[in-house]
Amino acid sequence: MGSSRTPKSGGNGVSTRWVSVFCIASFFFGVLVVNRFWALPVVVKVNREASSVDQSEVLHPINCEKKEADILSQVSQTHDVIMTLDKTISSLEMRLAAARAAKANNEEGSPVVTKSGADHLKERQKVFFVLGIITAFSSRKRRDSIRESWMPKGEELRKLEMEKGIIIRFVIGHSASPGGILDRAIEAEEEQHKDFLRLNHIEGYHELSSKTQIYFSTAVAKWDADFYIKVDDDVHVNLGMVGSTLARHRSKSRVYIGCMKSGPVLAQKGTKYHEPEYWKFGEEGSKYFRHATGQIYAISKDLATYISINKHILHRYANEDVSLGSWFIGLDVEHIDDRSLCCATPPDCEWKAQAGNPCAASFDWSCSGICKSVERMEEVHQRCGEGDGAIWHTSF
């Protein structure tokens, strides 16, 4: 009989093959279970963190406000930095303009400024305001009438500079023939009074716009002032009131102060104040833009510096007050209309003085200055003046 083969069995009767299969299956099952539970904490952790963020945002909205406050604080700090940089740039531009003006005066043969730009910058005196009295060769009597009324003389003029930071000078250029009799007469007058600012400019009535540009450029180069003033030599001025007026605007960087007006553009030839470029202002009968009347006005340091830097490209119209106003069109400039700078002569300015509110400046509109100023300047001073001691007792 044939014999039959049977599989080998363990002692418990389980086949070896099934033991091997069971072991392999157990191994893979173990791997699956381990991977499953190891990944779970990570998922749970991520879910918990997301849940924590969601709950934080829901339960603590104050965090958003805090973030917004932090952003606003950073914006404010950035703004402060920008403002500081702006002031620094403005100061550097002013110093650059002063150096350029000093250099230009040297190169063009100015009879006044003969030192180098660097030396000139070192000597620039910090002052409150510079008041330039625009005058002419033929106006000696007008100058004397001012010296005998509202303008300090000699040591008083020096004291005003040292104690109050106020510079007053008669502003004049030179004749078409430098060194001639007209120039020698001014030199002799300067030797006597020491109250002139000489410009590198040829005098002439139709050159007032150019003279105004050069005055501001020269003054910026010579003095570091908060304000620069231009006034005609037939206007009465109360220095204390002028100082008080300017002090109210001392913290502003770009101000243009005067009696603002907007008169007609005169196209007809032969008329006083004729504007040859009338067509630039529109149709016939148009008016000028707002600008300060030319008898007296003040500008802040930044604006005087701007004129000095750009004087070679600033257009000059026939009338200097119009020219000045045009230079500020398009700039961020505050126009201040101060009627105290254009009072009429007595009785108008006298009534105001008696009421304890003297005018800063007085003149007659009909004459564009005090009519017959040589004869009347002292009278106006007596009736409309703030008192000779007022300037010394006024704090700025």
Automatic annotation (TrEMBL):
It is a single-pass type II membrane protein. The chain crosses the membrane at residues 18-38. Its cofactor is Mn(2+). Belongs to the glycosyltransferase 31 family. GO terms for cellular component: Golgi membrane. Its EC number is 2.4.1.-. The keyword Transmembrane helix applies. One of its GO terms (molecular function) is galactosyltransferase activity. Pathway: Protein modification; protein glycosylation. It comes from the Eukaryota. Keywords: Glycosyltransferase, Golgi apparatus, Manganese, Membrane, Signal-anchor, Transferase, Transmembrane, Transmembrane helix. It is an enzyme of class 2 (transferase). It is found in: Golgi apparatus membrane. Residues 15-102 form the DUF4094 domain. InterPro entries: DUF4094, Glyco_trans_31. This is Hexosyltransferase. The keyword Secreted does not apply. Pfam families: DUF4094, Galactosyl_T.
